[in-house]
Amino acid sequence: MKDVRGRFLIEGEPIAGSFLSGRSLSLLETAHAGGCNLVTGGRDLLDPGSERGGFALDHGIKVMYSIAGEHIHGRPRLAARISPEETSIPIEGRAPETEDHRIVIDGEVVRYERAEAGTLSGCERGSDGTRPGSHAAWTILFWPGPLCEVIKEVGSSPNLWGYWALDDNPGMARSAMRGLYSTVHEADPKPHPVCAGYTNTIALMNFAPGVCDMAMLYFYPISKKGYFRDRTTLNTQCIMSHVRRVAPGTPFVGIYQGFWGGQYQRDSPLSESEIREQVEDFIREGSAGIMAFALLDPEKAGGFHGWNEDRGMIESVRGLNREVSSGRFRVPDERKDISRRRIIGAGGENPRGSIPGVPLGWYILGPFHAGGGITLETPVGPERMISQACPAADLSSRYEGKVGEVSWQVLAAYTGTCVYSEIWSPPFSDHSAAFAYCLVRSERDVRASMLMGCDVDMRVYIDGVVRHDFVDSRGLAFDDVGIPVRLRRGENHVFVKTVNEKGCWAFVLRFTEKDGVPLEGLSFEPASLG
Q1: Could you give the domains of the chain?
Q2: How much is the pTM?
Q3: pLDDT 10s digits, 78-96
Q4: What angle, 0 to 180 degrees and rounded to 10, lies between the N-to-C axes of helices 25-33 and 51-58?
Q5: DSSP conformation letters of 453-493
Q6: Pure H helices in 157-284
């Protein structure tokens, strides 16, 4: 197991726990029988005087207390971009009822007099020694006062291990997470860690220094479509290569799939090998601990089934937890076909500093209107000029976009993932189209694979020729689709058009050898993170 600072250990042992959803004592008893030293839970688990809180204390089970739902996911957002001078702030959502009329946006403290319908009025900008600034529409707002009260109530519990502060991608939450992180560590009497959950590279828009003490990763590779054996290791590499570059030393915990059923998951329990292989892959990548998802109340799980409902899964979880806690877990050699496709070395080693075949930034242009019957086939913006005779982007050109004149700008990519939702928010991102462009230079003529994923309609041009179309609705997955392409020695021009109907907006693209091995000898423009 990876060495981490003492506050991430539980009684000197690595994390070996489970998410828990339900209020029955029997679930906690199963957690204990399964060798769990950490569970997620609410106030009753933090109270040693309650039945479940007393059980947790007596049996050495610590609690990761959730502050995500109320303080991040449930908070209002900026309804429009604001300038440093504005004293009336438009919001979408209802402000919490609190006597502490402070919000934090991108490090700026704003005090307000009144919270009215859709507006915070009478604002004092740049309060408490901070500087007023401009802030993007749809940024989630953070109220430090209510969280301080919570921390005062729970921070001294002997059962508390840490805080679950972010669950996947609620939108533009990086600012709020930084406010939450600093508030927790100022108000908490003990250094309990702040943990943030990430399930794909889109969610990395909410990762930065000062956001969390520990990342928690979950991918759930077993569904009705089958068992995607390489999903855990590949996605961990994708996320942690970025995390380690941006905030070196940040540890992570692997959350493995310990449930079945529902609309998308398989209808039968997981086997011992399916569970163990997920844990092996997480630990091989340097995980500081493991947690199962999840212990579930059968009467309230909506068709899902937790590992507590199958004797074989209970035995698998118990055995793995004992091996991890005792330090006896041994990771076998990685399968050769998976090892050859690694984008970074095992345990996060990346002596190259960059990942072969992966663009770290894109030139982007948009948004353009894509409502009223406009589809992927409808030419908009620069698309009318794309051809084999004119395959490159004119980065100096300006176009009439959805909200006025638009020009090319650079957007950082998270391990090849271009997340438009980071800069464009509803309503501008709804029923919209955009373009991304990069110049790919190859040291040689090569027949390669172009691996892609998207959660929107997507068209890819290489040197002015359409090479891939996708029209459907799906979640973004790394390497979801692969097609053979020829990259010529010298310059190759890649355009990506996406059309977003509603919601999150992103795509991911990279190049590999034909067999999936990272492709050396490529460089990209833009070359930096932007």
Answers
A1: 6-72+142-348 (3.20.20.80), 76-127 (no CATH), 361-525 (2.60.120)
A2: 0.92
A3: 998 999 999 999 999 999 9
A4: 10
A5: EESSEEEEEETTEEEEEE-S-----TT-EEEEEEE-SEEEE
A6: 174-187, 231-246, 272-284
